[in-house]
Write a structure and sequence with these properties.
mainly alpha; Muramoyl-pentapeptide Carboxypeptidase, domain 1; 3-stranded antiparallel beta sheet; 3 strands
């Protein structure tokens, strides 16, 4: 009889442990789902964002008559205005930002956009750090602005990585400094440029007169000077 009671007690303990494991697993699954939902809701595309998803947004807005600008993958003022127009006509919050609800109305997913945008920011910051660390802050933003201006130009690749890794385009790529880890200042400068700050007013080129050996770039008219760099259209 005592042995039977011990067996029953062992079974009860085992059942309690199994129940506890199941409850814990359920809580973990629920918590993970909530985290994923929060992350999805946190992803937004706004002025300064770039990438293939922006091209998709621009293409759809253009097809539906909300947008008349170019499909260049850069979320500029015209794209923001088109998004606001779309939002106003579709019962959405009119803020010019593509969040979860606006994305759903456009029929797109934001899941891949967050990673793409983060990668662009990091690569741009690496370029800034490699090319202009030690320069005034506005000069660091200017380097990033030149990269973004090239992305917009039909004369250059239409992605940040394409512009930066275009053969012979940047000394920092050739000498390997592009692989250095950027500091917080470079990351902040990259974000400011992506959000629309262009201290160069549209320049596509820059160089350091003290070190540049390329005769071709020295023939270009200098538009302005920031720190040790001169900027040309």
């Amino acid at each position: 009889m005592q042995k039977r009671k011990q067996i029953e007690k062992t079974v009860q303990i085992a059942l309690c442990v199994m129940l506890l494991v199941c409850i814990t697993a359920g809580i973990l699954v629920l918590y993970t789902d909530l985290l994923k939902k929060d992350e999805a809701e946190a992803v937004v595309l706004k002025q300064g964002s770039t990438g293939q998803t922006i091209k998709t947004i621009q293409s759809r807005l253009k097809q539906w008559g909300y947008y008349t600008g170019g499909v260049d993958g850069i979320f500029g003022p015209k794209t923001a205005a088109a998004v606001r127009y779309f939002q106003s006509r579709n019962g959405l919050v009119v803020d010019g930002i593509v969040g979860a609800k606006t994305a759903a109305a456009l029929g797109i997913s934001l899941a891949a956009s967050s990673t793409s945008y983060s990668n662009d920011i990091h690569l741009l910051a690496r370029c800034i750090y490699a090319e202009a660390r030690g320069e005034p802050y506005v000069g660091q933003v200017a380097i990033a602005a030149v990269v973004l201006n090239r992305v917009k130009s039909p004369s250059f690749p239409n992605t940040i990585s394409g512009v930066i890794y275009q053969p012979l385009a940047f000394t920092a790529v050739a000498d390997g400094q592009i692989n250095l880890s950027p500091d917080n200042t470079a990351i902040r400068a990259a974000n400011d440029a992506m959000n629309g700050w262009d201290p160069t007013y549209g320049c596509l080129f820059y160089y350091n007169p003290a070190t540049a050996t390329n005769a071709w770039i020295r023939q270009k008219a200098i538009h302005l000077t920031i720190g040790r760099h001169v900027f040309c259209v």
